[in-house]
Amino acid sequence: MSVTVRLAGPLRVERGSPPEALRLGSPKERRLLALLAARRPAVLTGEQLAAELWNGDAPRSPAAGVATLVSRLRSRLEPDILLGDRGGYRLGAPPTVVVDLDEAARLLDESDRRLAAAAPGLAASAAARALRLLGTGEPLPEEADEPWVAAARDEWRELLRRARHADARAALGSGDATRARRTAADAVAADRFDETAHRLLMRAHRQAGEPSRAVELYHRLRTALADELGVEPAPETRDDHLALLQERPPTGPAATTARPVPASHCVGRDAEIARLTERWDAAARGTSGLVLLAGEAGIGKTRLAGEVAGLAAATGGRVAAARCHGAERSLFLQPLVDALGPVLAAPVPPALAGLFPDLGSPGSDDHAEPRRVFAALAALLADLTATAPLLLVLDDLQNAGLATVELLHFLALRPAGARVLVLTTVRAEEGAEALAQLDTVGERLDLGPLDAAAVTLLAERAGRRDLGATIHRRTRGHPLFVVETLRGLAAPGSGVPESLQAAVLARVRRLGDEVEELLRAGAVLGAAVDPEVAAGLLELPVPEIARRCERAAAARLLLPTGATYEFANDLVHEVLYATTPAPVRRLHHRRAADLLAGTPESAGTHAAAAQDWPRAARALLLAGETAARRGAMGDAESLHGRALAAAERAGDHEITGRVLVARSRAREGLERHEEAWSDLRGAAAAAREAGDRRLEMAVLRQLGGDVPIALGVPPAECVTHLRTGLRRAASLGDRGAEADLRGRLAILATNDLRFGEAIDQGRRAVAAGRDAGDHALLVGLDGLKAAYAYTGMLDELAEVIDELEPLARRLPDRAVLQWAVFEGSFPAIAAGRWDEARERIAEAMAVTRHSGFGGHDAWFLAHLGWVARQQGQLDEAVDAGRRALLRNGDAGHRWWTPTSCALLATTLLARGEVAEARLLADRGLALAGPDAVAACRARCLAVLAEAGDGDGAGVPADTALLEADRLLSGVTAPPATAWLLGADAYVSVARAWMARGREARARETLAPLLTAARAHGWRHLAEDLSRVVP
């Protein structure tokens, strides 16, 4: 690892990123290091050093004294920080040792080149970095003003002057007149005869729209030069002044001498590098971006990304990079943690404490919702890039989990002012889904093979130009194949390899058996080689593994990446894995599964490769459940599919059934209900084969869940399954299962308008849940909440939600949380606090987006329209209602779509659009089906009753009225309660009776509703109901 010697300000030595200050030791050691740094790259003899160190009073053996100091510095810092022996010493050279003044000079050269190449953002970034390096003060204030110290200070002053000029020029090029004025003014203050600084400040005043200040500045300079030096301003300065008076642009730049931008080392990619340079320049100027480098494996994506990373570092930017690993898809935002962890400082915002636990503060939120995490990361990146732009490189995006892709989408749309360029590499075939999600918000850059000229140039650089055409023909320009072929040719005694596999194996075997053993074990682990895991795999000490890794890295078969190593390319990894004997691979995989047990996806992958199918199935099931809990249902389904294949190979009916139940939940979240139902039928069969009563109970719970409802299975059948499951729970004494089953029975009874039964089941579910634990209590409270919500029992509802919502956030369980938040809007609706109600429903929709159950948002959207109608905002209500129907379509849930139809139809009736209201209600009734729950049928029938007969199609109005009236009369509820959430249906039925001259019957219909509304504080509803019947 390189070290940086900082001469600007007090002498310091730093290492790593973020920089770690190293202890320097005694004053003599500090002075020795400062002297060699100031006199770099000169070699100083022991006598010369002793003369400076001891001021002419050197010890009896000065050379020995100097050697002792050098030895101490080497042991305390880095062995290569000081080179030489008693014959002479010098400071180590880059990249091992970097001096801040040299780095500043390099950055200023780069700034000049980038400005000349019309990249003012990069020029500004490089100049700003140079200013930060130089801005810590005059070098070595602790030293007397001796010649070598004075020389270092003169060098610093000249660099600081250049840096201010460069920064002002870049700011002018970027159109940032404020920054240009500030920096140029600093330069003028430092040297009032600096004409370049004056010209830059004049141009900055002019760009800021204050030419008079520029003229005034010129006259002050002219007067000072004439009075004190007896000279006129330089011709360039006079020309700038004349341009001001003539209101024409200046004739040229305010002095810069720039060499051309160095040619890229990435052969054949000039066009791509030019485009990526433009995007990095834009990011440095404040326009963030996302670029997707796409192409097949080995096409050069990572190499090109590395070139851009070098550009970013060279122009004063920060670089954060990580690789996405397939075995870590279930770990939330792991690639971002790997990339940003090394560049962040504590403390991070509370919402990020779960990602960066070492940087969090006590009391932080370890379970923040993904959207809060995304927003916190965006804000963090804005803070991080306030002083320097950031290049965030994510390699192998095809291996990333859904959350990582969603975060990139979020950052692309909401950069929050961050100066960030996100650069990803992705295999086009395997990453098609990620590309599809990000194509609309990012720029895709497809990489193809190299042309013949590029391959010939590579061959020429390897000393084999004569083989360029042959290599191009054999490899078709595939960069990885080209490079590996040329590397094989460069090995002593080797000719042209017969195959790339042979070339890779030859390079491996030249390193000896020990390194080959490590590399083959590492190939089993995956693309990344963790020394600690590899040590466990081979049962060797970690230092021995690290030594072997370093030998492989020196041969460019491995690359160091922080705490781990990665294979230099996919070809090396794949060849080593394929040529490792199968029995050895199996043993390694089995051991890796033990070592990685804490990472279920990795453990399951290795167990499957070792053909330990029962273990693989259970580990992958656990990984899928982890993904489902964070709402990544696509990842969960994939992991459950792999778990199912393992369970079937194991012939284990119990684990097969559990996997099928879990996958049905994932598919339910993905709104693929037919497939979810198929899984449940398979799970039921597996439970019978296994004779596992607990598994059977879990299956029965899901057979009474939302999947059959969505497919139109009669609710009565669902109730039968749930009651059978309840008997199993009682026989097993399983209070947790009882809470879950009773909670679901409460929800079904609620929707069938049997509120007395619903409240009873809900209360018994809560009691069972309190005996069993938090998860059981959660589902019990959820069932009771539904009963209280539909009946509008606000006090009881508030009490349940006050306990349920914090519990759902803590566990966390977003599937339950979304409903707790939504139904928590009812007290505000009852009191007419519309803005508060809208905020709660909008929050429920936000939770839904990350719950994995996206179809539920149609229900919430339809109720936003319901709230808008109660406010009298009918146009907004219609818009929300139409969007809800568009979201679900006719294939949606058999509760969501009919309810959405009825709510929108009621709004259309209020606008006098009777024909469309009738069509919508007919549609909802047909979708609900004859066996639907009473709530859905009553809503649709009530609209048809009020709308009257139209063209004769659909259910006759009189028939609809009688059936709706029967359903409402059949509502069972405790005293002074009613179906308050179904007020629309009551009102429509009452109006239908009034239209037929039956006012007494209309009052009778509304009476229980009006009583309940007054009893439970639904003031707004009570006022509306009192106006329905005169």
Automatic annotation (TrEMBL):
Domain of life: Bacteria
Keywords recorded for this protein, A-Z: DNA-binding, Transcription, Transcription regulation
InterPro entries, alphabetized: AAA_16, AfsR-DnrI-RedD_regulator, BTAD, OmpR/PhoB-type_DNA-bd, P-loop_NTPase, Sig_transdc_resp-reg_C-effctor, TPR-like_helical_dom_sf, WH-like_DNA-bd_sf
TM annotation in the entry: none
Record-annotated OmpR/PhoB-type domain positions: 1-93
Molecular function terms from GO: DNA binding
Known DNA-binding region: 1-93
Gene3D superfamilies: Tetratricopeptide repeat domain, Winged helix-like DNA-binding domain superfamily/Winged helix DNA-binding domain
GO BP terms in the entry: phosphorelay signal transduction system; regulation of DNA-templated transcription
UniProt keyword DNA-binding present: yes
SMART domains: BTAD (SM01043), Trans_reg_C (SM00862)
Database matches in PROSITE patterns: OMPR_PHOB
Pfam family, any one: TPR_12
PANTHER family (UniProt xref): TRANSCRIPTIONAL REGULATOR REDD, TRANSCRIPTIONAL REGULATOR REDD-RELATED
Homology family: Belongs to the AfsR/DnrI/RedD regulatory family.
Protein name as catalogued: Tetratricopeptide repeat protein
Organism this protein belongs to: Actinomycetospora succinea
